[in-house]
Write a structure and sequence with these properties.
single chain, 186 residues, alpha+beta, five-stranded antiparallel β-sheet, 3 helices, globular
């Protein structure tokens, strides 16, 4: 069986702890089938799906040889959702989309296309998934007096991104197999 991969940005440990608090608030009113493990919180840049070790190694080498933008700050938060506002299929922490992130995303897509990966057709919406596959309950964001914790935002320095291998039956399920540093200028 071919392993599945994605390219993304791991969320800082201090912010992961805050997002776990958000999950606790969410769990008081919603019952999701799939809760993201704290160690797996990330911003996806490109889902690759199944591919060979050789293809991943080629992709990694191309990414490592790029002249990337310098490190930059982004904001994580407030809370958001995809789907019905009362019973969203995905509940997430929003992520800012500064120009630097857009440039990285475009270059990853360009390299991916050269290697035969299909370009993403949907508009890129960076976020950190907290829970998905809704089973029942009512979104805390749909309540009149929801917890203000879900309105908070946190600043995070982006100085690298990674290639992750997916292990669907494990917790945590995402293994970093390549670390791609950004230039150190800021």
């Amino acid at each position: 069986m071919t392993a599945h991969y994605f390219i993304g940005i791991k969320v800082d440990k201090s912010i992961r702890a805050k997002l776990t608090e958000w999950q606790n608030v969410l769990a008081d009113s919603m019952n999701y089938k799939d809760w993201t493990c704290e160690e797996d919180f990330h911003i996806t840049l490109k889902f690759l799906g199944g591919c060979s070790d050789k293809t991943i190694e080629t992709y990694k080498n191309k990414l490592m040889n790029e002249d990337w933008t310098g490190a930059f700050q982004i904001t994580i938060g407030p809370a958001g959702y995809f789907g019905n506002p009362k019973q969203p299929r995905v509940f997430y922490a929003d992520a800012e989309k500064p120009k630097e992130l857009e440039v990285i995303k475009l270059e990853i897509e360009k390299i991916g296309s050269e290697l035969g990966f299909q370009p993403e057709r949907r508009t890129y919406r960076p976020h950190v998934t907290l829970a998905k596959k809704n089973a029942e309950g009512k979104s805390p964001l749909a309540l009149e007096n929801y917890d203000p914790l879900l309105d908070e935002s946190y600043s995070m320095l982006i100085d690298h991104f990674s290639i992750f291998r997916i292990h669907p039956q494990q917790k945590p399920k995402y293994e970093e197999i390549a670390h791609i540093p950004l230039n150190k200028e800021m």
